[in-house]
Amino acid sequence: MSRRRVLSGIQPTGAGKHLGNYLGAVRHWAAMQDEFECFFFVADLHSLTITPDPADLRSQSRRVVAELLAMGIDPSRSALFAQSHIAEHPELAWVLSCLTGFGEASRMTQFKEKGSGNVGLFNYPILQAADILLYQPHAVPVGEDQRQHLELTRDLGQRFNNRYGDTFTVPDPYVQQSADRIKDLQEPTAKMSTSKGGPGVLWVIEDDKQTLKKIRSAVTDTGREVSYDVAGKPGISNLLTIMSVATDTPVAALVEQYDGKGYGDFKADVAEAVIAMFAPVRTRFDELIADPGYLDQVLREGATTARAVASATMTTVRDRIGLLAPT
Ligand code: TRP
Question: From CA 257, how far away is CA 250, in angstroms rounded?
Fold first, then answer.
């Protein structure tokens, strides 16, 4: 029996992954490889919507690949590729755009929130639908902010199937939310977030020294007891949550362990635990980023796997919609 397939994409121009993303998503992607046939790609065409500096786009794209590999994506089991290496993505996006209402695309909240922008930004969710439908995945693991784009993907897949006959798998959204419980270190009532950045966000890839500094300067609460009370002691509670996941120890056991000890000792231990948790990832990242030839090879091999699936889907699509086959 063939395994169920999952697919997800990451834009190379955002910041890297933070602790909350790591716990909420990326760590699960690594685990998913045991169960599913996985396709992960660098959404470099989507990044063009912000017209990045070319040199930055190139280096950021390699950085994403190194990050994913360091966090456990295994290229011998999963296809890891660059969106731009598979010409079928923009091709299918064009076909789907001809099935999308102007009003329908205008209702996408991410576009509306930006207020204005280029046509690429307007078409962004249609390209995303193409990214997905090309590979016939059963599930698409994404964050909550992508829910509406997945709904559009499902609508477009269904619309195509109704009109031209069954062609696409209509994927289930697989919204990952568990990361929300990790809060910003400086504002522990708000979730840790990429767009906020700053000293309250712990990046998976950063210097150990920065991690230490951020945890040492984390906002704590009045009082001196290490106890778990989200409403009354959000800062300490957040650090307890972080320590709990980093050491795989229940919060209650930690509270007992720190009975009678002060915030200073506790924070030093939290920093040590987070640094230890990320140590293998950071070491591996440093090795990988120093070896662009290897990263390119991973992308080349990933593209070979991806292209086989994408071109088969696209051949069917062209035929169904009535394009002449090239002779
Ligand atoms: N829009 C997604 C994000 O910003 C990235 C993305 C592009 C994506 N294409 C995709 C995610 C296809 C899942 C599937 O997070």
Answer: 11
Distances (CA, A) of 230 to 157, 239, 240, 259: 43, 11, 10, 18
Instruction: Give the separation between CA 127 and CA 313, rounded to whole angstroms.
Output: 15
- Kindly state if the Cβ of 9 falls inside 6 Å of ligand 1: yes
Quick one: which atom of ligand 1 is closest to the CA of 10? 5
pLDDT tens for the 327 residues of the chain, in order:
578 999 999 999 877 889 988 887 788 888 899 999 999 999 999 999 999 999 999 999 999 999 999 999 999 999 999 999 999 999 999 999 999 999 999 999 988 888 778 999 999 999 999 999 999 999 998 888 899 999 999 999 999 999 999 999 999 888 776 567 899 999 999 999 888 899 999 999 999 999 999 999 999 988 889 999 999 999 999 999 999 999 999 999 999 999 999 999 999 999 999 999 999 999 999 999 999 999 999 999 999 999 999 999 999 999 999 999 988
Single out the residue of 157, 185, 153, 184 nearest to residue 169, CA to CA: 157
CA distances from 301 to 33, 85, 137 (A): 17, 11, 20
Confirm if 152 and 124 have CB atoms less than 8 A apart.
no
* Ligand 1 atom closest to Cα of residue 143: 15
For 228-271, the DSSP string reads -BTTTBHHHHHHHHHHHHHHT--HHHHHHHTTT--HHHHHHHHH
Tell me how far apart the alpha carbons of residues 10 and 140 are, in angstroms, rounded to a whole number: 12
Phi, psi of 143 (to 5 degrees): -80, 165
For residue 26, how many C-alpha atoms fall within 13 Å in the half-sphere facing its CB? 23
Residue nearest to atom 10 of ligand 1 (CA): 9
Predicted TM-score (pTM) of this structure: 0.92
**Is the C-beta atom of 67 inside 6 A of ligand 1?**
no
C-beta of 132 in contact with ligand 1 (< 6 A): yes
